[in-house]
Write the structure tokens for this entry.
Amino acid sequence: MEKDLIQKASNDLGNWTGVEIEKFKEELKEKERSYLKILSEEWTKRYEEREERTGQLIREYQIKEQKLDTMKRIIHDKETYLMKREREQIKQDYLFHVLVAFFLLFEGW
């Protein structure tokens, strides 16, 4: 009888240990799932923040690019205008010199 009690206690202890080990494994798995979920949420948050920042930088770049294109157009237009004025001035100077030359030429007659 005493041997049976010892055997029963030993079996109960073995079963209890097995149950505790399984509980421990399940708790460990649950903690791991919890940590992985937190890590996943953090990575998702960082990814979204990075995407948002990238979008902002792209928009800023596009605005700067538009301003640069506008400035290039303005400079080109101004340069074209100045070149045209310079050609007209050269033409007027040439005509003036030709007229002066003719005037001096015919004055001597």
The chain has a mean pLDDT of 88. The radius of gyration is 46 Å.
